[in-house]
Here is the input.
Amino acid sequence: MTSHVLAIDLGKTGCRGSLRFTGHQTLYAEGQGTPGLANAGGIAAAEHAIRSIIDQIGPTTAFTLSVGAAGAASAPEAAAVLARHLAGLPGASSVAVTSDAVTAHAGALGGSPGVVLAAGTGAVATAVDDMGRFTRVDGWGPLLGDEGSGGWIGIEGLRAALRAHDGRGPRTALVAAVGERYGITLDQLPKYLGQQDNPALIAARFAPSVAAVAAADETAAAIMTAAGHALARSVLAAIERSGLRPPVACAITGGLVKLGAPLLDPLDRSIAHAIDRRTPLGDPIDGAALLATDTATALEALVTRIL
Here is the structure.
């Protein structure tokens, strides 16, 4: 097996690629994310995003391609098809495809037992017990789940702004924040979102605006608190369903961590009794790199490999 690894983290917000030689990054590229493998056209969109990263990096030697893709947990058949498609790429000596939730877990806890909350545009909590059994909570996408995620916060913030605009809800600084974030009026918002290929991603871009005004705006503060509690429910459900005994090793990853205290304070208060909070060892792209060559982790059963 080649010692070159091309690790890819394909999320709903963006796609990142890291070419590594003997564990050290040599080249890096970023591109657009995709709605997820479970969506219509998800396989083609994922393949296009991955090919774009490979074209940017331009590897000149054979490599092991390891991908953590959004939606793979909900659509394992699509993940298998994607793996077969990627196996035909020039230079790919072998391929590993799994969910970005799995690579997030591997990156954060290094393949060890525990719970990982991955919170970005979407949100999913995953648990691995001492026997390697995998439990997944939420990650059901923007229509059915992802509660507490960036997409969820953004949508709740936009709904609150529209309610205030109509007089159906209290006044809120979120009304002005819509124009500042998107450069449009509230009357233009439905058409604007409806024209987007990935509306959850566009909505998620409003999450930082909600967090930014939460200290002085009751409506925004309530949304952030609700998001923290929703994420906490996912963590606690993952612990209960997995059978892990508290305190459970737990790491929190993803771009939503950057929202800070408005989100993390209610989240931490709700799960403190059940977890042993750990600093993530790495991020999902590190997890993809780990799973590229390590077939002995507790997560191996969740990886589709083509050698």
Remarks:
- Residues 218-242 form the longest helix (25 residues).
- The chain has eleven helices and eleven strands.
- The mean pLDDT is 92.
